[in-house]
Design brief:
Elements (H helix, E strand, L loop, with lengths): L1 H17 L3 H29 L2 H25 L3 H9 L1
């Protein structure tokens, strides 16, 4: 299930990479949102299943920190949307 969400996210990224039309770009971003949202939810479910209740908050904090770091640094390091999508595809 997690791999299918990553595949959906990758398909949306490829659509964004190859398009020159804004409507298709928005469609690709929507597909990415579905894949990313599914991945985020499944990671939370997997952590809840594997990690004991006493340690769960610590692992959730680490996961949230990783997501926050990725969002902030991804926006700061790459100045072009096309470079952002191409970096994920390569």
């Amino acid at each position: 299930m997690l791999l299918s969400n990553i595949g959906i996210f990758t398909a949306g990224t490829i659509i964004c990479c190859v398009t020159n039309d804004f409507a298709v770009f928005i469609t690709g971003r929507s597909i990415q949102g579905v894949g990313g949202g599914g991945s985020f939810a499944l990671v939370s479910v997997i952590l809840a299943d594997i990690i004991p209740l006493r340690q769960r908050a610590q692992y959730q904090a680490i996961t949230s920190l990783a997501w926050s770091f990725a969002v902030i640094t991804g926006g700061l390091l790459l100045f072009s949307w096309l470079l952002l999508f191409l970096s994920f595809c390569s």
